[in-house]
Amino acid sequence: MSQPVRTAIFPVAGLGTRFLPATKATPKELLPVIDTPLIQYAIDEAQEAGIERMVFVSHPSKQAIERHVMDDAKLRAELRSRGKRDLENELRDAALCPESDDVVFTMQHEPLGLGHAVLCAKDHVLPGPVAVILPDDLILGQSCLPEMIDAYAASTAGHMVATMEVALEETNKYGILSGARHGRLFAADGIVEKPAPQNAPSREAVVGRYILDESIFADLSGQEPGAGGEIQLTDAIDAGLARLGLHGFRFSGTRFDCGSKAGMLRAILHLAAQDEEYRDVLIEAGLGQSAPEAA
């Protein structure tokens, strides 16, 4: 039985260049999917998974993230004085409390890669394996991290990554596993960062949820820059693969790449289609169906 996963790391220091100019002043993690920022979905997922400590690896220019994440008693008091109790309660329930929640903000001052961002959290994690959640990989439906943690507890591997099958021509956008599938688990014997389609060992692609043995920090500390001159998390995972083992996990939910404009739009339309409030809007746009007329 593996140790419990008590810490989640949220790498949120990126510049969000694909959404400029919208992200010039607003961090991409605060971009809303209808009315809920991406970071809120990630926090809710971690809480559902029973995570004890949340470590946000941010950048000094993105103070708005901390303002959103943490409780704002002054704002809630203002809402209460205006009789907006429902909105006050909604903000209170969504926010993290500095007194009752274990929250750490640490800085990644230079854009040196995802592996470097995880390494920046080294001094702030609780003992045992750690989870890493990329907020712009939005997974709707069945929450991913809770079912991953259950699978990890029963797994013999030290590292586990969330995976999905992608088209062969898409493999150059992902870390790709080699190995063999056994049900929902993929026993990996290697991981390659963004291979060309003709060199891809499979179509089993890593998406933004990881559970990593605590030795990942030692492997990252000695990691040389990889693709793009950055410290690649996939390289450090691969370095420990023979020693620890690696499983890919096929999650149940639906993943949206909200780091891209098309992925964000797909997520918005997906949620809108499930909400009666937006039915007429979708019909007007030719994206929904009118209710059948009564006989």
Structural summary, described in words:
It catalyses: alpha-D-glucose 1-phosphate + UTP + H(+) = UDP-alpha-D-glucose + diphosphate. It holds the Pfam family NTP_transferase. This is UTP--glucose-1-phosphate uridylyltransferase. A hairpin with a 2-residue loop joins strand 2 and strand 3. Strands 5-4-1-6-11-8-12-10-9 form a nine-stranded mixed β-sheet. By secondary structure, the protein is α/β, with parallel strands linked by helices. The protein has helices spanning 38-48, 63-69, 73-81, 85-94, 114-119, 144-154, 216-221, 233-239, 241-244, 261-272, 279-284; strands spanning 7-11, 32-33, 36-37, 53-58, 102-107, 130-133, 137-140, 159-165, 175-182, 185-193, 204-212, 246-250, 254-257. Mean pLDDT is 92; it is low at 291-295. The longest helix has 12 residues, at 261-272.
Task: Provide a brief overview of the structure.
Helices cover 30% and strands 24% of the residues.
* Main β-sheet description: 9 strands, mixed
Q: How would you name the CATH homologous superfamily of the largest domain? A: Spore Coat Polysaccharide Biosynthesis Protein SpsA, Chain A
* H-E string: EEEHEHHHEHEEHEEEEHHHEEHH
CATH fold-level label of the largest domain: Spore Coat Polysaccharide Biosynthesis Protein SpsA, Chain A
Quaternary state of the chains: single chain
Distance between the termini: 60 Å
Please give the CATH class of the largest domain. Answer: Alpha Beta
Indicate the radius of gyration in whole angstroms: 20 Å
User: Structural class from helices and strands?
Assistant: alpha/beta
Count of runs of 4 or more consecutive helical residues: 11
Shape: globular
The number of domains is 2
The CATH architecture name of the largest domain reads Alpha-Beta Complex
pLDDT < 50 runs, ≥5 residues? 291-295
**Overall residue-averaged pLDDT value:** 92
State the share of residues found in helices, binned by percent: 25-40%
Q: Strand portion, in percent?
A: 15-25%
Order of strands in the sheet with most strands: 5-4-1-6-11-8-12-10-9
GO molecular function: UTP:glucose-1-phosphate uridylyltransferase activity
Family: Belongs to the UDPGP type 2 family.
InterPro entries: GalU_uridylyltTrfase_bac/arc, NTP_transferase_dom, Nucleotide-diphossugar_trans
Pfam families: NTP_transferase
